[in-house]
Amino acid sequence: MGVPLRVLGLDLGTVRIGVALSDPLGMMASPETVISCTDRQHDIARLAELVAATDAELVVVGMPTTLRGEHGIAAQQVDEFVAELAARLSIQVTTWDERMTTVVAERALLEAGKSREARRDLRDKVAATVMLQSYLDAHRSS
Fold first, then answer.
1. Residue 119 has pLDDT above 90, yes or no
2. In 3-state terms, what secondary structure has residue 11?
3. Domain holding 50: CATH number?
4. At what angle do helices 101-111 and 116-140 cross, to 10 degrees?
5. 3-state secondary structure of 92
6. CA angle 10-39-74, nearest 5°?
7. Domain span at 17
8. What is the DSSP letter of 34?
9. How far, in Å, CA of 87 to CA of 21, rounded?
10. How many domains does the structure of the chain reveal?
11. pLDDT, tens only, 14-65
12. Does 139 or 7 have the greater pLDDT score?
C-alpha cells in the first residue's frame, strides 16, 4: 500500500493537539500547527477544517502505547477520539505507534537551543512530525 499524497498527522494531548502535514508527494512531514483543546466536538470540528484546508487524504493519529507495546487508558481514549473523528470525516483515519516521539521532539528542540517556553510551544507539533515521518517512511516502500 502506498501513502496517499497529503497526510495529516496528529499528536493528541489533553491540553494541545500537535499537527503535522506531509508534502504533496507524501514523502516528508513538517510541523503544521498546534490546536489548543477545548472540548472534543470543537476539537474535531477544528480538525475537520484543517483536513479540508490542507486537502489531506488520510489522517494518522499517534497511538500512545507502552514501551512493551501494550494499550492502556490513554490508548483507549485515542481509540474513542479516532472513532468520532472518522465519523466526521470522509477520509480514512488510522493510528500509528507514537512511542518516544515526544522524547525525540524534546531532545531535538534542546539540541536546537530552544528555551523552555519555546519547547513547550513547539513540542506537540514536532512530536506529530516525528510520528508522521515514521508512518510515511514505513509505508513508502510497501
1. no
2. strand
3. 3.30.420.140
4. 130
5. strand
6. 50
7. 7-140
8. E
9. 21
10. 1
11. 899 999 999 988 899 999 999 999 999 999 999 999 999 999 999 999 998 8
12. 7
